[in-house]
Amino acid sequence: MSARHRAARVLALCLAGLGCLTGAAPAPAADEPGASEAVRLSLPQARALAQMALQKGQPKTAYALTEGLLKADPESGHAHFLQASALGQLKQYRTGRKAAARAFRTARTDVQRFEAAKLAAELSFAGEQPTVSQFWLRRTVHYAPTEEMRAKYVNAFRNVRHANPLSFDLRFSINPSDNVNNGSNSPYNLIEGSPLIGTLSPSARAISGVVAKTDMLAAYRFREGEGYETHISGRLLSREVRFNNPAPGISGSDISSLRAQVGLRHLWAPNESGYWRFDVFGGRAWYGRSPYYDFAGIGVRRVQNLGEDLRLSFGTEVEAQIDKTVPKADATAYSAFAGLSYALDGAGEFGAHLQFREIDSDGTNRASQQWTAMISYTLGREIGPAEISVSVGHSTLDYDQYWVILPVPGGRIDESWFGGVTATFTGYSYMGFVPEVTLNAEKSRSNISRFNVDQTSISFGIRSEF
Hints:
Distance between the termini: 49 Å
Strand order of the largest sheet: 1-4-5-6-7-8-9-10-11-12-13-16-17-18
Helix content: 25-40%
Low-confidence stretches: 1-39
Structural class: alpha+beta
CATH class of the largest domain: Mainly Beta
CATH architecture of the largest domain: Beta Barrel
Number of strands: 18
Number of helices: 9
Shape: elongated
Number of domains: 2
Largest sheet: 14 strands, antiparallel, barrel
């Protein structure tokens, strides 16, 4: 069909729709007088007529015109956009969002994609679909033509997320490591330097491989008021291990783990200086594909603003664990932490963190105490294409009683040093997600050589900018 004939067909369809909507007489047939003048309107002129109808608040007229335009050219992004706008004015938001999505798919330029994504986000929010609106706002941010427009729609995304009772958080990383099983760096099992136990099995030695970590969180805010809100949440943490080479007596699935939990969280902000968070949770943990323990716990934390740039956080948590593998090995885990963050004026951010954890249990080699201290610094400027942050820390793990066939005199004591460097490539953002690369190193020394561990790993992950 020639462009002239297609335009004629479009006009006939458009005028027929206009006649139905306005009560005007239908367009003359092709063999009637005046028909040749009626079909001389071009496709651009029909689009302009639809645009004019929208500007004058005549969405039914505009919709009828776009129906004809789309019959002539189903891949017309502009026609889909006009139809979505008309449906929005008619308050048919969900159908309009679908039309805006088609406009996005058929767009030919980034500016057209930006406008279509923006319209889809607006129609989704108007149609009470805030989660879908957040998705389209991410696309809007991605195709924003200027930094000012990008910042505007990042702020719009945050506003919609705050209004949305449903929230999601997903973190994923791939970690190649030279020690995925926390194995020893020596073939010998020495206790205080004495080789009484002998050599270690291959499964207790360091094994290289890849660890995939996933942390998924979903929460729903079902109650809120002045200065408080309450959420129900579900969380899934997965650690999947694959070895680079087969190891006798062990496989990656044997040391893979999974933790699933549900809980209630209550946030209370009596004033602008900070807030309290109260948690009640429970669930199950698996290790090596088998149930490991069931758990239930409570926690409380406080975030306190000490100034415009200084923030203090502290809290405590108690978790009861019912062992599913060994009788009388149930445990109670107590933990407490304190953290301080300080935003340096134009020079980055400094952080310090201190944590204590105690496991109380009658199970063999279960009861322990651990102290961990860490400091971090995020640079206030990019180095090349990346934002850089560094961290270093020290940990002490103490078992008052520890058995290796026989009781170990004085128990077991491990000292660990660890550190990492993270590069976040903000210039490679896609829909607000940016890639991260982290290099980690750890060295642990123990009075039991089985726990002398050296580990180096590199992590590839993604995170949200906003």
